[in-house]
Amino acid sequence: ARPDALPRDLDGVRVVVSAGGTREPLDPVRHLGNRSSGKQGYALARVAAQRGAHVTLVTAHTDALPEPAGTEVVPVSTARQLAEAVESAAAGADVVVMAAAVADFRPVNTAEHKIKKTDHTPDPTITLTRNPDILAGLVERRRDGQIIVGFAAETGDETGSVLDHARAKLKRKGCDLLVVNAVGEGKAFEVEENTGWLLSAEGLEQRIPLGAKAQLAATLWDAVTALLRRRSH
Ligand code: CTP
Ligand code: CA
Q1: CB within 8 Å of 117: residues ≥ 6 apart
Q2: Residue 51: left (phi > 0), alpha (psi -120 to 50), or beta?
Q3: Which residues form the pocket of ligand 1, taking CB atoms under 6 Å from any ligand atom?
Q4: To which protein family does this belong (predicted)?
Q5: 42, 55, 197, 221: which has the fewest C-beta neighbours closer than 10 Å?
Q6: Confidence band for 192, pLDDT divided at 50, 70 and 90
Q7: Distance CA 215, CA 194 (A)
Q8: Which ipTM value was assigned to this complex?
Q9: 134 assigned binding-site residue
Q10: What b-and-e string marks burial along 136-154, b requiring 16 or more CB atoms within 10 Å of the CB?
Q11: For 137-156, what is each residue's pLDDT tens digit?
Q12: Which residues on neighbouring strands pair with residue 149, listed in sequence order?
């Protein structure tokens, strides 16, 4: 869409978007990471800025992506750094969107020097510990009227469908909106297109049609502006 065709319905709204995948270091040259490209988070930040929002983009590791115009970019690496940056930006925000792929666990120990093959007989074991749940922390400390959005990638399994898992996660996380990507072969990771559902705490369940990540971003910001409008009345 041409920029002048976009609504300016986020004028002056303060938005924080997290994007990309965190890296949890094992030693100076190795880490545990994930396959997040950062494209969805960057599209969310770009579209919000085009619609008039003040955007802080807290970004972990991504593919080579252009900085979204008109946003303040805060680069981080680990889950704990992401937590600190998001929490500090969230203190003054109307909307927080957690699109980052946050590592659930990190190695207990990070070696100061490169680990050598010969350091370990027998072969080493990596012991992990849990990272903070940033989204849960945001919900706990939510400002009056603040809107908090989570993202989840789900597959169906023997205990339930993608949508079943999504409903349970929305309840567990306590956020206002949850975007759920159905993942499987060739979906969501490292591709231009996403498909899934947008669920709200109020019970809305919107199927998000297959489309570009900018389209998913537009759908999410439409839902956010609808919530903002209702809260200001
Ligand atoms: N998230 C977070 N902090 C974490 C892990 C996840 O803030 N330590 C956020 C993600 O950014 C996302 C949402 O929580 O917006 C859901 O992430 P997901 O990994 O699906 O949820 P988990 O509770 O970690 O559940 P799972 O066991 O399925 O990984
Ligand atoms: Ca997780």
Answers
A1: none
A2: alpha
A3: 79, 98, 100, 102, 104, 131, 133-135, 150-152
A4: In the N-terminal section; belongs to the HFCD (homo-oligomeric flavin containing Cys decarboxylase) superfamily.
A5: 197
A6: very low
A7: 9
A8: 0.99
A9: yes
A10: eebbeebeeebbbbbbbbb
A11: 999 999 999 999 999 988 88
A12: 97, 177
pLDDT at 183 over 60: yes
Kindly state the DSSP code that residue 142 receives in the 8-state scheme.
P
The residue whose two tokens read 């669920």 is 199
- Calculated CA dihedral for residues 26, 31, 34, 38, nearest 10 degrees: 130
The predicted model scores a pTM of 0.94
Reading the block at residue 118, the tokens are: 């010969």
**What pLDDT shows up at residue 5?**
74
**Residues facing 186 on adjacent strands:** none
The whole-angstrom distance between residue 152's C-alpha and the CA centroid of its chain comes to: 8
Question: Mutation test of ligand 1: which of 131, 133, 181 has the most ligand atoms closer than 8 Å to its C-beta?
Answer: 133
Active-site residue flag, 131: no
Nearest to 77 by CA among 24, 135, 113: 24
Angle at 119 between CA 117 and CA 125, to 5 degrees: 80
Is 44 marked as binding a ligand? no
